[in-house]
Design a protein that fits this description.
The structure holds two protein chains of two kinds. By secondary structure, chain A is mostly beta strands. Helices cover about 0% and strands about 55% of the residues of chain A. In chain A, strand 5 and strand 6 form a beta hairpin. Chain A starts with a strand and ends with a strand. By secondary structure, chain B is an all-beta fold. Chain B contains no helices and eleven strands. In chain B, strands 2, 4, 5, 9, 10 and 11 form a six-stranded mixed beta sheet that branches. A five-stranded antiparallel beta sheet of chain B has the order 1-3-8-7-6, with no helix packed on it. The chains are: A mainly beta, B mainly beta.
Amino acid sequence: DSGVTQTPKHLITATGQRVTLRCSPRSGDLSVYWYQQSLDQGLQFLIQYYNGEERAKGNILERFSAQQFPDLHSELNLSSLELGDSALYFCASSVDAGVGNTIYFGEGSWLTVV
Amino acid sequence: GESVGLHLPTLSVQEGDNSIINCAYSNSASDYFIWYKQESGKGPQFIIDIRSNMDKRQGQRVTVLLNKTVKHLSLQIAATQPGDSAVYFCAVGGTGANNLFFGTGTRLTVIP
């Protein structure tokens, strides 16, 4: 158990809908990351937050947004869902935001869009 | 951006043998390299990491080798066990931020 908690574990929703994925980082970690894992794209970095502020942005679609709250938990909002958004979404955390800080992953939220 | 690739998508080894998983990266400025293990239905699990100022680092039954000249990274697992069966990813740290670029993964199967 990495200490990173994600909910829900599984989610099935229809195209056009909006969902929110939630993440609690490891105790003491200030930085949170979101990754998407799909069969054709592999593990892709979406976005990073550090202590509530956006720190780095990757291949995150405009239909997706995220935030990190004062208690350090984070949410990833996915809207206008398409079939191709079906994937495993991982949250990860690290103590600090700089390069070289070990990143620990949660168990993921499996999203199926039908 | 960074491009990370693994040499073999699958690898089968006999229990007790040593395993070697290879990875290549594209950005010579990359400074941080990590190996993760992902079991079915679980998230990537940190195994070992190495900074660019080192060429070798050892953990418990695992060794990571870094060859910056040819931009190559390898993970060696000693005395491979059935519990080592998983998908192994190499990841390369971003040069400005701590985001990771992942390779496509090598599925290691340990034959009892």
